[in-house]
Design brief:
alpha/beta, 5-stranded mixed sheet, 9 helices, 13 strands, disordered N terminus
Amino acid sequence: MTDNSPLGGETKPPLRLGTRRSKLAMAQSGMVADAVREVTGRAVELVEITTYGDISREHLAQIGGTGVFVATLREALLSGEVDFAVHSLKDLPTTQPEGLVLAAVPEREDPRDALVARDGLSFEELPPGARIGTGSPRRMAQLNAYARSHGLEIETVAIRGNVDTRIGFVRSGELDAVVLAAAGLSRLGRTDEVTGFLPVDTVLPAPGQGALAIECAESSTDLAAALAELDDPYTRVAVTAERALLNALEAGCSAPVGALADLLADGQVVNELRLRGVVGSTDGTSLVQLSITGPVPTSHDDAAALGRELATEMLAKGAAGLMGERAL
């Protein structure tokens, strides 16, 4: 007897997972594909899709930043070319498009930024005038602010490219160090190249950094329900608060905004969620850095409300004037 259910049955074709072509995207999507095979009992094949962000050589702030790595994947979902897609959550615009649903946010990896420097140097050990490469205005703002406040002399250099390209700038001697997301290096099996992890008290990560987003068509209700088994409730609450802050600031994913939500415990009892946010000028001369603490949210709306509340406080302190990009 043929099984005609949307997910089950040996006669059903593989589920098609849309992914960017980069090594990191393929590694992330491969991890999700394995998990989806486990929960659905269905074969999964990766469909490689090239996005505008992959082919453009301009810096992200110049091409808009927001959504440049996800728009083509979303078009493939809406057209039925793929069944679901995997994104780095920090690349995802904060407004959910009509017809698509964020089906799962799996457990988050390490959200910190990591330094890969020549000669195994830590950030504090870099020589005066050290050139540090990053494609992120957020990192530039916080690194420069930290250096200024601690009497360090550095030069931040805007770069683009995949992990190999960026680390290659250090290997060739063109740069003294580069800053990359720790989660990406972990998923690629390259944490042995890290010479130092940047504490979140020094550099707050991008909203959603370290988390993945699994998206599918809203009409694919059975698939969405199956994918929801991969959702991590705490990660979902945390990134919802972070992304609500980003949305309320009307900032895009390449604006100089950092945010991180984490649980606070009183003894053995986890009873509060702390949300920290920062906006800064890329030269590090001006920062607006605030935090807010509230009860652990029990719903998406509660988490989002915490993010909006912190955004209101940051805007009152002048955050709007420090953001070079406004969300489209």
